[in-house]
Amino acid sequence: MSKIDNNTGSEPTYFPGVTKIAAYTDASKAVKAIEDIYNKSSALIHDAFNRLLEGKEVPESLLAEATYPYVGIHVTQKDLNLDPRLSYGIVVEAGIYGGTVTRPDIFKRYYHDQISLLMKRHKVPVYVGASNWSIPLPFAMDHTPAQLDPRTLDMGQLWQMQSGFALPNLTRVNDDIANCTYRSTNGVKPVSMFSGERVDYSLHRLHHYTGTSPDHFQDFVLLTNYQRYLDEFVAFGLKQIKNSSEYEELVIPGNVIYRRGDEAVTLPKNLPQMPAYHLKRKDGMGITFINIGVGPTNAKTITDHLAVLRPHCWFMLGHCAGLRSTQALGDYVLAHGYVREDNVLNQDLPTWIPVPPIAEVQVALQQAVENIALKKETLKTGMRTGTVVTTDNRNWELRSDEIYERFRQSRAVALDMESATVAANGFRFRVPYGTLLCISDKPIHGEIKLRGMANNFYNERVNQHLQIGLEAIRLLRSQGVDQLHSRKLRGFDEPPFR
Predict the structure, then answer these.
(1) Contacts of 254 (CB under 8 A, 6+ apart)
(2) Contact in structure between 7 and 29 (CB atoms under 8 Å)
(3) What's the CATH number where 80 sits?
């Protein structure tokens, strides 16, 4: 490898199809190069779109350079003298790593952190160039000013204008890297878990499902299956913004932003399918809370897309059925294992693959329960740690006689419809995960949640349960996120980006 200075320098490339490539030993300059390439590509697409709006022809050459930025690294055997216990920001095998990236406006801090680690640990430059992978029109225009928004056109106009533009190509948007089934065809190993187009696809879907722009999402994510939790979260968020400098904004569906001094929140009348609320910090280490609704399909859908944002943690705060006679309504369940009968991830993560608990999350959740709800001496009577069954059958109670033996064999303590899916996708996408449930009924013991009982339960437990989740996030944040990411989530030949 030829000598490279501390700024940029042209270098013979190891990366097929990448042009205008340069080597960087300064992470800030590498990220600036990513921004320049992406912004130029977006501007070319916008310019072409405006030309068509004005009835002008669009030269093919105008869109030829509208491609994703590319990031790569070449690590030789002598560059591998590292602590193998590190959980990300390293490569474990010598070779060439690369891939497309997108939306530096959202991922600037993330790219800087990952590139800095690779430069620091391997003492090699990082390459940035323009890929030959075109940015699809919908993804380039999805975050553009309203006057350029293709959604203002009718379907006939859109159909005519798509000619000449790249469109999403789902044949090359997959999760082979995350699923550990990826095989390189050109000798270049992936630098990250997702390609630029896979990320853009999920950013587009996140906005659709949650009603909020992806740039509002924070590094800690809470998931629930009851909207009442979100009402309590909004009240908590407004209080934090008013009385604390830690959080700066509360964002609700519709991208409505509340800051200190704003009036009380007016919630939208028509909520999206999985409404998201964001309590934001300047460093991005705030809290995103999403009502994913009921069922494993929703749980898979939202975590499939949340994963591209590379959050530091997500965990489930939901309700469940207690399966033990010794449990009482309102008791908590801290999952340390799962029976996966959700059936939505069987192709991506076969059920024979264990989903281990993440120690740091388990400890934080247990400590949070102790800090907020139960004293240490009563912890074992008010919270059970054990196996949770996740089913895809909403009316499983009608088959409880048939499946009771499975409960006994698994030693399960609770049943729900989302937790195993959330945890399994956390394992699959290397996002630390956890589950803290609250028992709302015990159908197999005759304690069915009737209307009056349900209202009393919600009034007593929802706020406390939420406060436990918020306390767990505080504990995880205070101990440092580097402690949170676990090597048990890494594959044998893991991409170096977290």
Answers:
(1) 211, 212, 268
(2) yes
(3) 3.30.1730.10
Average pLDDT, the chain: 88
Question: Could you tell me the two tokens for 32?
Answer: 């600036």
Q: CB burial class (10 A; 0-12, 13-18, 19+) of residue 454?
A: middle
CA distance 413 to 330: 14
Poorest-confidence range of 177-181, 278-282, 380-384?
A: 380-384
Asked if 212 and 268 touch (Cβ cutoff 8 Å), the reply is no
> Distance (Å, rounded) from C-alpha 363 to C-alpha 376?
13
Whether residue 103 is found in the same domain as residue 52: yes
Say if CB 300 and CB 345 are below 8 A apart. Answer: yes
Three-state secondary-structure class, residue 220: strand
For residue 163, the one-letter residue type is S
Identify the three-state secondary structure at position 394.
coil
Determine the Cα–Cα distance for residues 341 and 394; give it in Å rounded to an integer.
12
Q: Among 181, 205, 229, where does a domain finish?
A: 205
Residue 221 in contact with residue 311, Cβ under 8 Å?
A: yes
pLDDT over 80 at 253, yes or no = yes
Query: What's the pLDDT tens digit per position in 319-374?
Result: 999 999 898 899 999 999 999 999 999 999 999 999 999 999 999 999 999 999 88
Alpha-carbon span 100 to 172, nearest angstrom: 12
Q: Considering the domain boundaries, does residue 2 fall inside one?
A: no
Distant-in-sequence, close-in-space partners of 337: CB < 8 Å, separation ≥ 6? 355, 357, 386, 387, 388
Distance CA 410, CA 215 (A): 41
**Residue 61 placed within a domain:** yes
User: Would strands 433-441 and 332-341 be described as parallel, antiparallel, or unpaired?
Assistant: antiparallel
Question: In which residue are the tokens 């499939």 written?
Answer: 304
Residue 50 sits at φ, ψ, to 5 deg, of -65, -40
Report the domain count for the chain: 2
Convert the pLDDT of each residue in 13-41 to its tens digit. Answer: 689 899 999 999 999 999 999 999 999 99
> What are the angstrom distances between the C-alpha of 161 and each of 140, 233, 369, 459?
14, 43, 56, 54
